[in-house]
Amino acid sequence: MAVKVGILGLGLIGRLTAELIMPHGYECYAVRRPSTEDFPDMGGKLVETARELAEVSDVLLSALPTVESARDAFYGADGVLAGVHDGLTIIEMNTFPVAIKEELKDAVEDTPAVIIDCPISGTQPVIRAGKGVIMMSGDEAACERVKPMLELVAPKTSYVGDYGTGIKLKLMINFMVGANTVALAEGMLFGAQMGLDNQTMLDIVGPSAAGSTVFGMRAGIIAERKWQPCAGPSKLLWKDLDIVEEQADALGLSAPLLRVCNQYYKKVAAADRLEDECAVVFEILEDEIKQAAE
User: Fold this and answer.
1) CATH architecture, domain 168-293
2) Second label for 30, Cα 20 to 30 Å away, from 41, 83, 240, 250?
């Protein structure tokens, strides 16, 4: 019998997950919204409420954009918690503050369901290329049960420990991606100011010790100034860096590099560039040079 998977949040990750697992016999459901009306065309099925989604599902995958949307979906008469049942595994994939992950765990703890923390790292193109990373944490038996499904989304799916370990790793990864992106942008701007051409930088720096996954993803974007269309909009990285900074504050960390990076994405926001690729921070840095020269 097909495993029934409820997808709470049919955005970038939720929709891609459905697309990758349905060909393998998983039966996917989502809540009816204007943005999900095309889901049956993909082979999915629609229900009316989050409660009904939980009731019909063997596995419920939560991939929502904000804390507020998650709380709205979980709590209330027609929320997930009203529909949980014995045997339901809730996969919490969101990038949220650690405290919010713990709040959701506490909310599910006294129900017949089990919740595990399984964030994913990777943009859509990265995931489609089989290079996404899923960090499973929490009840190990529950993680093992859903691992074959998650491996269809990200072959590199690993159990990393107690509940919450996954999101802690994800926050660390997102901080390093942000720092690498700002460093790449500033480095290429530095090279350009010295008179280096883009192709030389791409050809020589990429294979050097300064090369990185972020360099491979974004150096070409900077060289071409191709900020749209994009799989990694600045608004997502900025949201995540805010969460990382909040966690650093909770730990009493100075985190100077983190705070500088986040300040630059605040400048991206102020310039109304949040829909552009994360690498657009290059133009923010470039504008600072121009303004200083005036």
Assistant:
1) Orthogonal Bundle (1.10)
2) 240
